[in-house]
């Protein structure tokens, strides 16, 4: 959580340094073409990234502290911290991309968003398999939450899926067309990060893994 707060503070400091050079209206949203199609006041644009990043990290951290299976979360403290830190770093990178777009002659994001998502997925791919069963962090299918062996298998394949998606998305940055890059990002995210681990978790639930189930 401290690292996430540091990322938010770094974003605000960078915005303060760049403030005199920033235009009154800054790009805040980009279309499929990669060109900005939404604009907002300078004060909102420079604050929304760090505030959203910090609040998201704080929400994840707080909910984890309030949820059940605290003994598992205590054993996953390092992984949970890495997860929250990754979210903070991701927010800082996106904030930097917005500042760069506002200051550059070309306000497009280029392949920056794809690289940011690939980096986030790569970190999460290493972190997720280390998380013990809980209701807030990880691939939380009902079958994984009900069975320890299913949980570990689901997190393992989810980690591989995240790493695979990161590699595919990073490789897509060689494609000049931003619409194609976005399509690959969405396809890899849906298929490798969502559909594959959820389907595998369901399939394993149909098998006898020979381990006790959780009461809830």
What is the topology?
Elements: H1 2-18, E1 25-30, E2 36-41, H2 42-66, H3 70-75, H4 77-103, H5 112-127, H6 142-146, H7 148-172, H8 178-205
Antiparallel strand pairs: 1-2
Q: Could you describe the 3D structure shown?
A:
By secondary structure, the chain is mainly α. The chain folds into 2 domains: 1-109; 117-122 and 135-216, no CATH class. Helices cover 69% and strands 6% of the residues. It has helices at 2-18, 42-66, 70-75, 77-103, 112-127, 142-146, 148-172, 178-205; strands at residues 25-30, 36-41. It has a two-stranded antiparallel ribbon with strand order 1-2. Helix 1 runs antiparallel to helix 2. It starts with a helix and ends in an 11-residue tail after the last helix. The model has no long low-confidence stretch (mean pLDDT 85).
Task: Give a brief rundown of this model.
The protein has 216 residues and is mainly α. The chain is built from eight helices and two strands. The chain has two domains: 1-109; 117-122 and 135-216, no CATH class.
């Amino acid at each position: 959580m401290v690292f996430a707060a540091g990322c938010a503070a770094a974003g605000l400091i960078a915005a303060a340094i760049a403030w005199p050079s920033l235009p009154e209206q800054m790009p805040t949203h980009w279309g499929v073409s990669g060109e900005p199609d939404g604009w907002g006041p300078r004060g909102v644009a420079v604050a929304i990234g760090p505030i959203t990043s910090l609040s998201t990290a704080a929400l994840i951290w707080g909910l984890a502290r309030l949820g059940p299976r605290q003994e598992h979360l205590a054993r996953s403290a390092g992984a949970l911290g890495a997860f929250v830190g990754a979210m903070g770093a991701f927010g800082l990178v996106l904030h930097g991309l917005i500042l760069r777009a506002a200051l550059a002659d070309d306000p497009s994001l280029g392949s920056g968003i794809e690289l940011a998502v690939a980096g986030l997925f790569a970190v999460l791919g290493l972190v997720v398999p280390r998380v013990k069963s809980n209701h807030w962090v990880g691939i939380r299918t009902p079958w994984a939450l009900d069975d320890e062996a299913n949980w570990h298998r689901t997190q393992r394949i989810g980690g591989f899926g995240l790493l695979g998606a990161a590699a595919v998305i990073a490789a897509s940055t060689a494609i000049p067309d931003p619409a194609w890059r976005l399509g690959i990002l969405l396809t890899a995210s849906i298929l490798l990060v969502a559909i594959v681990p959820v389907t595998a978790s369901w399939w394993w639930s149909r098998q006898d893994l020979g381990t006790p189930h959780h009461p809830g």
